[in-house]
Structures
1.
Amino acid sequence: MEDKPAPVSRRNRPAKAPLSRETIVATALALLEKDGLEGLSLRRVATQLDTGPASLYVYFANLNDLHAEMLDAAFAEVALPQTRKGNWRARLKTLLTSYLMVLYNKRGLAQLAMMQVSGGPNALHIVEKMLELLMEGGVLATRAALAVDALLLHVTAVAAEQCNWRDKGHDLERAKTILNSLSPEEFPLLYASRDQFFSSTPKSRFYWALDVIIDGVLATPLPDD
Amino acid sequence: MEDKPAPVSRRNRPAKAPLSRETIVATALALLEKDGLEGLSLRRVATQLDTGPASLYVYFANLNDLHAEMLDAAFAEVALPQTRKGNWRARLKTLLTSYLMVLYNKRGLAQLAMMQVSGGPNALHIVEKMLELLMEGGVLATRAALAVDALLLHVTAVAAEQCNWRDKGHDLERAKTILNSLSPEEFPLLYASRDQFFSSTPKSRFYWALDVIIDGVLATPLPDD
DNA sequence: ACCTGAACACCGTTCAAGT
DNA sequence: ACCTGAACACCGTTCAAGT
């Protein structure tokens, strides 16, 4: 005997697009960029999509699933060098710089990348291109595979670290304070070289580290087993 | 006019130790080891300490504070080589292996280490010892500082990655499946070298990567600026 | 099949009150 | 000063019910 709910014209929310993995991922990525990983929640994505929190479970088994999809979607923006201009090493470093910036520019993405390997197609294309560049440089398959692992892990970690410094506020000042107030007796070497830890710009340190790994990969004998 | 609550003998919980930063950190680390980072919460630590969730805020400003303290407390277990037996490189690799194992053995600790730099005393002692070993090897201050950064970042990232593989279940099988079901046309190089990504044991890969970085640090010219 | 509100079992943090 | 229960504003996930 209750009143029927007053009919709600669909015109009131006519543009409510049907859900899909793509729209959910895109919405989630926009939210990630705006509020960081802390601000990203299934509930907020759902609200943004004008639905309840349960709706997303039709498309993703859980939050982790969504994270993985977001990560690989973001990897689509990594610029893969298509020409053969410049030597292979320069192109490899350019690719990795692009990879770094993609992780760095979208807040929380690096943290996400550290939390799981993305076996998605975009990640695989990056690996494929890296193998191509390394092999152009005469690096054989076994060594190239190790190099890809080492380089991607390194760049991902650098991105995560840089993001922390940026997002958690100016921890750099705090770090300098700590190093400067160190006991020279207890930490003689660290105290003496404390300024060295802030030498170079982040950019040149990044390029240096890439060269370190590439040089090392070329020079170091492969593991036996 | 209400009844007074029945008096509760202190004998019923006589051993309720007074709270302190140390006991809280120790309890939290025990919980971390048992349940991983997911299972660690302020509320559970509080429950374990037989108190309410608000009590811990007398000692820590927030959860992040507790995390930082936990991390450095755990670093106390990293074995710093004290003798001068063996060459500096071997001792450096031993130290870093110990660092890796500390992060690896306590679930969630590596993830925590990736999320913030620990300026605590135990972390600083590790850096000091690394500088000592590198300088014994003739590496000068600027290069040594860069090397310490690169090595610690690498090992921390490896620990985090390994922990993911261990904790999130057998993602390794899934990875193999993905690589094996790859389209040879779309990913020719990756497909051809797919087995190389699983060559070597984790241990020998780890040692290899350390040598890669050390070799690279020694060979690569310093950044200009 | 797709979508949903309500409910469940949790969070970190704050606050007013107790000792 | 130290400690605390209750409250606040959130979570991810499940479930039964709706279309």
2.
Amino acid sequence: MKLTTKGRYAVMAMVDLATCVDDKPVALSDIADRQEISQSYLEQLFAKLRRCGLLDSVRGPGGGYMLSRPAAEIRISDIILAADEPLKATRCHTGSPQGCIGNRGRCLTHDLWEELSQQVHLYLSSVTLDDVVNKRIIGTAGRFNAQPAAPSIETPQAATLVGGSVAERV
Amino acid sequence: MKLTTKGRYAVMAMVDLATCVDDKPVALSDIADRQEISQSYLEQLFAKLRRCGLLDSVRGPGGGYMLSRPAAEIRISDIILAADEPLKATRCHTGSPQGCIGNRGRCLTHDLWEELSQQVHLYLSSVTLDDVVNKRIIGTAGRFNAQPAAPSIETPQAATLVGGSVAERV
DNA sequence: AATTTCTTGACTTTTTTACTGGGTTTCTCT
DNA sequence: AGAGAAACCCAGTAAAAAAGTCAAGAAATT
């Protein structure tokens, strides 16, 4: 999963849309204004989101965009995957043709990235648009302080799991 | 925390170094060869890692680099933070001066990114170099299935990957 | 018919990454 | 002492990706 500002913009815009509870479509220009994103840029993003079935659009005067389903049924990961689209196969690094099963410790790191990717995805799919709108993001920030990994390694999963809002986190 | 290929390279090189268990320093050129990374590029990375105290260096013939402490005491997050350095304050988006406490739902997303960043950091600081070398990366992939945040949504399949090229300051 | 709005594609700018090359310093070995 | 092997340092650059812009067009409502 790729995390860029593009994905963030997409989420911001979707959150904006989700706060407009009316059944009326919302004009792109309104969202662009509120979120301070260039309208043309948003157009590109919304085109993708629409193609992925996250948005419905209405043309003509009074038209605009609206969520295709309730905010509680849209995961943040859905949005980011749609916006950052290029679901390229996981290649280990820049793009060496021979893949990553080389000699030495070359892709010992493979599993690590794979797992990290899972972690991120799991987290983002545990949060819905509705969670964000209703500030239901719970913070682990203070609970665990970045634990020294040092001498005795405590179970890695300790770090990863905390009950989440709707689903579990990670 | 930023996740880029630069950080990945740094981790790969550190893993490589960690597999050379000897007390002898390892020449940069060897690592560059094995990991197929340009030597000069690695120099830059290693300079940062050294400045952050993760590496010790020995000059002159027979010199090279060595881990400054046991692999079990070096967290992956240490490496990535060192390599991707610019620990700029988490600004919500591109850089609007007014920060992110705007009107409307603007930075409802703030907490989300903040929390995601924590998640990633927590995970990466739960894994040590030694864990990677000894393939002690545990997979959550199957264990928890990403709980549908909503009634019926297909399971989020394979999170594609960590940063294509440019990734995110999560 | 006219206006509002989405839709599309190509295009430009900016930023970042990845890499190169030159030169200097520090060390070891002969 | 001198030669050479390595780390160091700096500045620049080519390419790629991301971020943003522009302009023409199509649908629907008024």
